[in-house]
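Appendix B. One record, verbatim.
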Amino acid sequence: MVRVTSIASLHGTHNCTSDEGLFEVGRKSGAPLLLRTDLCAREDENLRIMLQGRSRKSMPIGNPLPARPVINRRNFLYAATAAVGAAGLVAAAWPLIDQMNPDAQVLAAGDVVEVNLVDLLPAQQRLVRWRRFPIFVVRRTPAMLDAMQERAFVAQLFDRDSQKHQQPAYAKNWHRSIDPAFAVLVGLCTECGCVPRYFADASVFNVAGGYVCPCCNSHYDPAGRAYAGIASCNLPVPPYEMIGQSRILLGRNAQDEFFSLEQVERV
């Protein structure tokens, strides 16, 4: 026997198990009769649609994650070959790039500052900026030059013969300059880097005129030679050239010699 029910039974009003009761109810209610198998099929379809709707709501919004690339031996060899080729290209181009950079001699020659000496009075100092350095230019007096050569004072100098490479060859003498009347010095203490103070008289020195560092109390004579305090190196002499007695060209070497401050021992 095939079990049937009515639409009304789906709402819980009737549930007939006999053929007579089932057909009797169907005749009285006028409802169409449906086989149990049809109802089960419809319920399964409704359940499937409901589950599909829930699964769609639970899925994340957006594009799915891209698949990870597969790294195999061929791809690795391609990447390694490209890296080696790039390194070889850089190595081959480096000499060309390096020769385009100017050397120290070109840099020194390209930064020349002219200093006028006509109006510079005896014992007077002129402060000039050359590159990033303060440059002292002093017209020394005869008294300064005489005191710088006194035997008792020379014995106090730490580097009286200018053995340390703090000056060009054309300034490696007792007055450390081209012309004894003019001192040209880098105005930075060789011990602490402060700017020394200039004194034109002999009130605080063992020699007429000179420099005292306000930071470490190192003393220098009018030629920049250290003789007291903790500084052991003389003040550097920058590259320069004299044009007669009226001009100085800072940054241009005299006597066809190349010298730069990068060569000094201490600045």
